Amino acid sequence: MTENGQNRGYIARDRDRQPDAYTPGYKTSVKRSPQAALLSFPTTLSEETSPVFGHGLIGKLDNDLIHNYAKPGESAIGPRIIVYGRLLDETGRGVPGALLEFWQANAGGRYRHKKEGYIAPLDPNFGGCGRLITGEDGSYEFRTIQPGPYPWPNGPNEWRPAHIHFSVFGHGFAQRLITQMYFEGDPLIPLCPIVGVLKSQQAIDDLTAPLDMNRTLPMDARAYKFDIVLRGRRQTYFENRREGL
Ligand SMILES: [Fe+2]
């Protein structure tokens, strides 16, 4: 591949960098992991190119979880934050025009979902999901409240660190990657069995967004920076496709 006449070379997928599918410490992986050798299905033109999402479908408040579910004049309860960063390819170039979706628990650690059973209350002004399209340089930004940690039935007393789920769509719906972002300084990160499937501290650090005081809004919101890398040495860990795109 060339850009501006330079040969950037080809960076192959590295499946070994990603966690193993079978990781008994994360109990659900026992049933979810493949029991037989993988089969490869060739994709066809329709899976590679369509269907596509309509950019015009993005609403004005879709990137503002503080307000996109709130009654007029009200807002979600919780520490107000900005999450921002860039979607990058393997050479560090920004990926424009990608649909980014994100979902999270509320400030008490509870999801708005019919199967959610945690005793923390719902916030009537917080839905918990949003979306946006990355800009020309692959950049993105959205506003939300910092989610709370929550317990989950993996063992006798397991708690998820505060996190935000991310989905990235490519040019067709068959191209989808899913990952999670954690928050710098959260003491639950090293205790979490899901984080524990990552193979290195670097991989954990890559999923942990640092506080960025330069991007905070004084008297309003703190800022956390999270870049998503599709392939290469800095590739983000994706749950559904270990090798990335
Ligand atoms: Fe979650």
TrEMBL record:
Entry-linked Pfam families: Dioxygenase_C, PCDO_beta_N
Ranges where the Intradiol ring-cleavage dioxygenases domain occurs: 83-111
Domain of life: Bacteria
Any one GO molecular-function label of the UniProt entry: protocatechuate 3,4-dioxygenase activity
Positions of transmembrane segments: none
Residue numbers spanned by region Disordered: 1-28
GO BP terms, alphabetized: 3,4-dihydroxybenzoate catabolic process
Assigned keywords, A-Z: Dioxygenase, Oxidoreductase
EC numbers, comma separated: 1.13.11.3
Uppermost EC category: oxidoreductase
Family: Belongs to the intradiol ring-cleavage dioxygenase family.
Protein name: Protocatechuate 3,4-dioxygenase subunit beta
Species of provenance: Kangsaoukella pontilimi
Top-level taxonomy: Bacteria, Pseudomonadati, Pseudomonadota, Alphaproteobacteria, Rhodobacterales
